[in-house]
Design brief:
Elements lengths: L1 H59 L6 H13 L8 E5 L7 E9 H4 L12 E9 L11
Antiparallel strand pairs: 1-2, 2-3
Helix pairs in contact: 1-2
Length: 144
């Protein structure tokens, strides 16, 4: 008799554990996917910032023969490391009045998100920008 009672108690304990797991599992999975999503978005953002900085660095070099073609190639090379090809690259070129090169890269959040609309994001895009001064690019014309 005592053995039957212990068997029933074990079955009830297993059933209770199963119910508890069914209640807690969705919460834990949501938390897990949220952590993975945040980590991936952070990786992509760091890559976008790095690509913008590298593109800007190439743009300000005096040794480049085709700086803007080389900028787009360098940015594409870096962005391919995270598998992103649908990005917008915006460049502001140096002038006499403003000798600063600027590069901005943006990607729509829909291209970055791993889990889609399951976890809401506060931003509509992931973006990175860099600006650097182009030294000696265009000297002011001497009057005479």
């Amino acid at each position: 008799m005592n053995a039957k009672r212990k068997g029933r108690l074990r079955k009830r304990t297993r059933a209770a554990a199963l119910v508890e797991f069914a209640v807690v599992a969705p919460l834990l999975l949501t938390l897990l996917f949220g952590i993975i999503e945040y980590g991936y978005v952070f990786l992509v953002r760091q890559t976008v910032v790095h690509a913008a900085r590298e593109g800007c660095r190439v743009a300000v070099l005096q040794s480049t023969s085709e700086p803007y073609t080389e900028v787009t190639e360098r940015v594409a090379e870096i962005m391919s490391t995270v598998g992103m090809s649908n990005y917008t690259l915006t460049m502001t070129h140096a002038t006499l009045d403003n000798p600063e090169e600027s590069v901005r890269i943006s990607i729509p959040m829909s291209e970055v998100s791993l889990v889609g609309c399951m976890i809401p994001h506060s931003a509509s895009e992931v973006a990175g920008a860099a600006s650097m001064r182009k030294e000696g690019a265009a000297a002011a014309p001497s009057g005479g």
